[in-house]
Amino acid sequence: GQNIDQPTEMTATEGAIVQINCTYQTSGFNGLFWYQQHAGEAPTFLSYNVLDGLEEKGRFSSFLSRSKGYSYLLLKELQMKDSASYLCAPRSGGYQKVTFGTGTKLQVIP
Amino acid sequence: EAGVAQSPRYKIIEKRQSVAFWCNPISGHATLYWYQQILGQGPKLLIQFQNNGVVDDSQLPKDRFSAERLKGVDSTLKIQPAKLEDSAVYLCASILGYGLPSGANVLTFGAGSRLTVL
Description:
By secondary structure, chain A is an all-beta fold. Chain A has no helices and eleven strands. Chain A is globular.
């Protein structure tokens, strides 16, 4: 089975840095996605980690520790448009099953 | 390249009626997923196809939901009869395949079909 845990809501200030944590228990793990979802829209791809360590992409970075079943998404220089839900999604198995967590709703305030 | 196409975008039906959603994935994408997303929750995987074969349907309520991908390209998800709790957005997504470099394995979503059951 799969178990994914991430905070339900977070609030951060414009210009600040925020870290969204995700823990997972997944058999046959072979990578982890982070997706962003604005209200009323479909999820869009942010990052993908398959090996341990930090992947940086502009203002967004994602970290993975496979031994700990742990990942985080780091958002720097927060902007109002970053207000959205952030979904942690481990991938598993030979057929690439992708399971989503409940999502973390981030509110960026002035 | 064209994205994942879904229709209809919105559908309102009464309980016990039936509804069908259509998805056309990105050209060449072998793997297709149907997710159900209830308001305030993350997407829940209903069914996953590899070409025209089902590889995971463990969370599909098979007494009322069915899906097919007959020619390994587009897919249809049907609900019959619908219940109030089926009100959700139905998201279709596709991915190129497995055993490929990670950059080729991004899950791409369609805009979704929003279902309201009254």
